[in-house]
Amino acid sequence: MASPPKTDIFLYTSGTPNGQKASITLEELGIHYEVNNIEISKNVQKEDWFLKINPNGRIPAIVDKTPKSDGKPRDKRIFEGGAILLYLTQKYDPDHKLNYPYDSDEYWEVVEWLVWMQSGVGPMQGQANHFYRYAPEKIEYGIKRYQTETKRLYQVLEDRLIEQSKAAGEDGPWIVGDRMTIADVANFSWVNCAEWAGVDVRQFKNLSQWVDRINERPAVKRGLDVPKPFTMKEKLKTKEGEEEYAKHHSQWVMKGQEADQKKYG
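RE: above sequence
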C-alpha cells in the first residue's frame, strides 16, 4: 500500500452535510490539508475573495497548491462537493481506497450514485430542512412534500443496500462494490442528519445500520468535526438544545434568503 502523497490543499468549509463530505474524504485518504472556516452565518461565502474560488458562493471548495509531478507550481481551485470528491480520489487515492480504477464498471457506478445524491438527496433533504426548521411560517404542504421525497430517496438507498448485502464482505454492504467509496461518503453526509429534516432513518433498517457503521470509522469522526465539533445530534437530545440549535441556524438562513431576495427578487 502506497503512503499518502504529500499534498498542499486548502479546504474552505463549514459544518454542513456538504462540507462534511469533503472533510471526511480528506481524512479517510489521510492526506494533509489546511482548514479555512467559512462562517456562512456571516455571509463570508459571498465575499469577493471567496467568489474567486467558487463563483456560486457556496461551500465546500478547495485550492490545491501541491506541486505538479514536473515540479511546476499548481494553484487549482475545485468547487462543488461531488467534483471535489472525484478530484481527490483521482489524484490522491492510488490504492483506490475510496473509489475504483477509472473507467471500470464500478467507477461509473460510483459516479452514478454520487450524481444521484447531488441531484436528489441533497436538494430534497435540504428543502425538507428549510420548511421543517427554518421557514417563518409552517407550510404543511412544503414540509410533507419534501419529507416524503426524502423518504422515497432513502428507500432507494435501502433497496440498494439490501441488493448489495447478497455479496457483501465482513464490513458491508456498501453502495458500490466491496468497500466504502465516495458514493457512501456523499450520501452519508446527508442521511446522517435525517432527524434535522424530521425524518426517522430507523424506519429503514439497512440504511440505519449503514449510517451506524460509517459513524464508527475514526476518520469519519474526525471529518465530522471539521471545522468545528459536530453538535447537532447532541443538541437534539433535549428540547432546549433543539430549540437553541434551530434558532441559531434559522437566523442566518433567513438572513441570507432576505439578502438574496433583495438583490435578485
